[in-house]
Amino acid sequence: MHLPTLLTSLTLLPFTLSIPLISRQSPCFVTGSTPLPAETLKIANALAATVTCDTSLRPLQNLPDTISGGVRFSSINFENSDLLPLDFALNAFKTPSPPSAASLNLFTNRLNTYLAQEAGVRSIGGNLAIKAPKFFLAFQVARIKQSRGIAITDPGQTVEHLLEKVIKNAGRVSQVTKDEVTRLAKDL
What we know:
- With about 190 residues, the chain is mainly α.
- It has one domain.
- Helix content is about 50%, strand content about 5%.
- Strands 1-2-3 form a three-stranded antiparallel beta sheet, with helices on one face.
């Protein structure tokens, strides 16, 4: 490297170092310091551009309310019900038959608020009861997509895979509830 080029580079170095190359700011819903699993971190970073927070409401484990496409987590919070989380989800997040008639946008926004809240819960090392309704919403989104003929390229987001996740995270619900979820997997 020539001396004039080196001097110019060294002169500009303070200016180039003051420009951040990578943003390290966490999404508004990740308020804790517990490291997130890689998959959750990827989802949280993807949602950071579309999910906003309302810190004046703290609907779940003192986390800010999350909003996606006008849908507030606080308006669909499973903890506002006396039902078990999966029973709540089965009642609150129904689709018509066939599910192709359901609003994919509405279900996606509902899912986004749950995904964001789960990331927040994980960041504070909180209770993960949210997983049952979150997986059920993902299952419903997959059902809507499959019913509409929308290709699902991620094997972790298929109806069949998400059915397993819903059942695995169902908690202490009745067999009737599990059977109803299994029946929905065939109603496409």
